[in-house]
Amino acid sequence: SRGPTRRRRTTLRIVLTALLLGAVAGPLVLHPATMAVYWFEFHPELAGVTSVWHFLLFRLRAGFTAPMLAMSGLFAAMGGMLGAVIGFGLAAIAWSERRIARLERELSHTLPALLAAGEGECLEFKASVRWDREARRVNRALEEPVVRTIAGFMNQSGGTLLLGVDDSAQVVGLAEDFATLRRPTKDGFEQYLVTLVRTALGTHCCPLVHVVFHHIDGRDVCRVVVEPAPEAVFIERDGTAHYFVRAGNATRALDPRETLIHMQRRQAPR
Fold first, then answer.
1. Which helix (H) or strand (E) holds 185?
2. Are 269 and 1 in contact (CB under 8 A)?
3. pLDDT tens digits, residue range 62-88?
4. Measured CA angle at 213 (ends 2, 169), to 5 deg
């Protein structure tokens, strides 16, 4: 995914454009307008000027004379800084709108449609997070594949993880998982998932994970929508950082060389 690079390039383009416009508007607009306010306030005799535009034009021409160049430069800098601030705000709004649009597109897919599509690069099924259905007991080792899948989605283009659905796309539900929690409810399960992500991947990854519950055939399914991360996401185990990506319908770890190549391609501009 080249999303992080596109975001930085778009932000830089918006900010630079706003900065340049602000720098131009400073001496052309802010300077004469400020001088007009100053003269009208401290020179009452000008209150009767019949043509404000004539006065502003006069001040505009004066702003580019030698004695006033320093003042015009100051206003250009002020306008540029104001433009840069506005540019950052516009870039943040634009990015938020794109995030919302992407999430809306993802959530527009119905659960039956996802089940019918089957697992792929952006879709994964997991029957459970901590309840071992064969051993009939809690198995914390089941958390690891869930965390790896989420990290793999973050390091690629994002994706959806359906919990309570087995590999054959059959809905098995999460009743057993709920029962193992201190709060055996949907809210308790969501809190458990967020804590799992925060512990394994870091607090900065939590806003990239969105949880939605579906009820189908009398069973609960948790739909985890994962956004691509702006920076590389690692899972640290035994003092070693591991990098995971989606490869087809599986999540795989990359060795150091592969990790470097993948990160370079991920950050490379189009």
1. none
2. no
3. 666 777 777 777 778 888 888 888 888
4. 75
β-sheet bridge partners, residue 236: 241
Contact partners, residue 179, CB within 8 Å, separation at least 6: 131
pTM above 0.85, yes or no: no
User: Mean pLDDT of all residues in the chain?
Assistant: 84
> What is the C-alpha separation between 203 and 210, in angstroms, rounded?
14
Residue 147 contacts residue 196 (beta carbons within 8 Å) = yes
Q: State how beta strands 234-237 and 159-163 pair.
A: unpaired
Quote the tokens at residue 159: 């994706």
Contacts of 180 (CB under 8 A, 6+ apart): 130, 131, 138
**pLDDT by residue (tens digit) across 217-257?**
899 999 999 999 988 999 988 888 999 999 888 999 999 89
Sort 197 into a burial class: Cβ within 10 Å, 0-12 / 13-18 / 19+: buried
223 and 210 Cβ atoms separated by less than 8 Å: no
The arrangement of strands across the sheet holding 234-237 comes to: 234-237, 240-247, 250-254
Q: For the chain, report the end-to-end CA distance as a whole number of angstroms.
A: 11
Residue type, 3: G
Q: SS3 of 84, please? A: helix
**Contacts of 48 by beta carbon, 8 Å cutoff, 6+ apart:** none
Whole-angstrom distance, CA of residue 128 vs CA of residue 16: 48
pLDDT band at residue 200, thresholds of 50, 70 and 90? very high
Query: What Rg do the C-alpha atoms of the chain give, in angstroms?
Result: 28
Amino acid at 119: E
